[in-house]
Amino acid sequence: MEIHLIIALCVLVLIAYLFDISSRKTKIPTVIFLLIMGWAINQVTLRSGIRIPDLTLLLPLFGTLGLILIVLEGGLELEINKSKIAFIKKPILSALISLFALYIIIGCTFHYWLGINLNISFLNAIPFCVISSAIAIPSAANFSKKNKEFVIYETSMSDIFGVILFNFMIANEIINASSFFVFFYNLIIILIISLIASIALAFFIKKIDHNVKFIPITIMVVLIYALSKIYHLPALMFILIFGIFLNNLDELNRIDFIKKLEPEKLNLEVQRFSKLVTEITFLVRTIFFLLLGYTIQTNEVLNTETLPVALIIVSIIYLFRIIHLLIIKENLMPLLFMVPRGLITVVLFISIPVNKQTEIINQSLLIQVILLTLLVMMFGLLFNKKTTKNEF
């Protein structure tokens, strides 16, 4: 039995790899194949009578690991210098404005249209407001450098801002001045921790002379994230800062203690570390979306009670996206389509306390919104194929 499971897992990962390669030409997001494949496996096991243990418990684990690795991978790709400061501001502000605008619009929609308690409405709205970097970043692999960097910054910061807002809402039943004081205090703490930890981990990368060193470094990153979460600190901020710090040592070479790290030599190790992170991220992301597809029930996708709500949410997302991109003077194509919901949406949704959950805002609604945004992105990229090629 174990051998059959190993064979099945290996075959699934290899198929996912082929999907990932082909998606660059087909413009069809790999995640759609993975969800369909996971769902198909579920149907086969049900009809054949094969007993498989409940895999839904693994979703939060692989979701959290995937989120950490995706943000780290994005940070390791970003370059920051004086010439890019003006550009960087735009996607970061875009992520912040989009999150809060949709938070208010969707939260009010839940409250006034569905008649849900105001606090519960806004808490449940957050997962639908966050762009999934797990889907958007890989889908932007063939974009022009400018568009790709915009997607990486915007989606990574959307994840971070979304998690911060979600944790803030969970921790504060009543929002007052004290709540904001604690929030900014925690933000300063995580910035200090990020700086110290980034320097320490960079030092370890340089000094450790052993055949195995990047896996322990990765585990330490995850450990720092987990410890930060225990103390309700915005832990994703550390992940992004650490990735950006490692990838921009040359820009910090004027600082004395950075010179001691010998950035020229360390850059080679960072490149190796970045490749390892990319490959681990692919594996974790693949397993997560296969698991998510496996847990999807056909009746959830076809639920007619939640479908009108899902269509309203998706319409709000794209109408606001059009208005927002026009205001910030960015090209509609292909950035209009790069607002999928996915991994982070699921992670936040399953983290909502039981007493804050509602009947109408359920897993069916979640799955429908995710699938609809994926389909819009897929068809958008397919029809925008010629335009995208001209930007490369």
From TrEMBL:
GO CC annotations, alphabetized: plasma membrane
Main location: membrane
Gene3D superfamilies xref list: 1.20.1530.20
Keyword Nuclease belongs to the record: no
Segments passing through the bilayer: 6-21, 28-46, 52-72, 92-114, 120-138, 150-171, 183-205, 212-228, 234-252, 273-296, 308-328, 335-354, 360-383
Membrane topology: Multi-pass membrane protein
InterPro entries: Cation/H_exchanger_TM, Na+/solute_symporter_sf
Cation/H+ exchanger transmembrane domain sequence ranges: 12-380
Location(s), subcellular: Cell membrane
Protein's name according to its UniProt entry: Sodium/proton antiporter, CPA1 family
Record organism: Flavobacterium terrae
